[in-house]
Amino acid sequence: MRNQFPDDDACLQYLFDSRYGGLKACPNCGVISPKYYRVKKRMSFVCKECRFQIYPLVGTIFEKTTTPLTDWFHALYLFSVSKNGVSAKEIERQVGVSYKTAHRMAKMIRILMHESGKLGFLGTPVEVDEAYIGGKKKQTDKDKKTPVMAVLEVGGHVRTLVVPRANSSTALPFLENNVRVGSMLHTDESKIYKHSRVKVVFDHKSIRHIAKEFVKDGVTTNHVEGFFGQLKRSLDGTYHAVSPYYLHSYVSEFAFRYNHRHEKIFQLLLAKAGPKVL
Ligand SMILES: [Zn+2]
Fold first, then answer.
1. CATH architecture for segment(s) 126-259
2. What is the DSSP annotation of 7-38?
3. Domain ranges of the chain
4. Per-residue pLDDT tens over the stretch 223-244
5. What span, in angstroms and rounded, lies between the C-alpha atoms of 36 and 16?
6. Alpha carbon of 21 to ligand 1 centroid (Å)
7. Which listed residue, 55, 161, 186, 204, has the most CB atoms within 10 A of its CB?
8. Residue 117 pLDDT
9. How far is the CA of 78 from the centre of ligand 1 (A)?
């Protein structure tokens, strides 16, 4: 990381190339295959033909920041290689910024990792489960914890939702937004999924954990439970206590990491931080 991005000039050049490198013509003078040169002491590049200036930081999370780009890139890198999340304390220590700055950076990077909008349906079969997060370590009372639902395509992506209560009324819209009608749906024996509509909309099969069943006739929820296991261990180990209000951003962070587990996450985060300009 330090080799590729030794200073802010290298970071800025990367952002210019990745955001504007594909320009076929100068947006100002229209010259084909435009050549741009770095403007010294400014965060901009200039067209050789018409002197039009492009500021690659405009419209990125780096636009108004006073934190050096190398520090931002370093923090993004930490998020990309971590399995268990990155605390503000760790950014403070590793990047060498104040705790306040580290906290703000982490918050913005987590926003990049939140994927929303039309994400499309998951492929079949899908596993669905819910977990209860937060509260004191030994607290087992579900009322003191925040429920999170997850639906996971085996070998594919996971989608998550933090809900005020885990029940059929919160589960059904979540499922119908993410799972195509008629898909195979695997759950445990929870009564949340015993709602008659689940049977009508999906090809629903459940596993009886209470009878020590974990895989039966190809029906299992082991994958989605694995996702929750990783999430809980990380929240306990790295973040210690997360308020219900912020929980969704941490859950999104882990879903992002899971969904892009076969990709180069650092490059992906840089592309999210500074999206390509057409
Ligand atoms: Zn031009």
1. 2-Layer Sandwich (3.30)
2. SHHHHHHHHHHHHHTT-SB-TTT--BS--EEE
3. 1-60, 68-112, 126-259
4. 999 999 999 988 887 777 777 7
5. 10
6. 14
7. 186
8. 75
9. 38
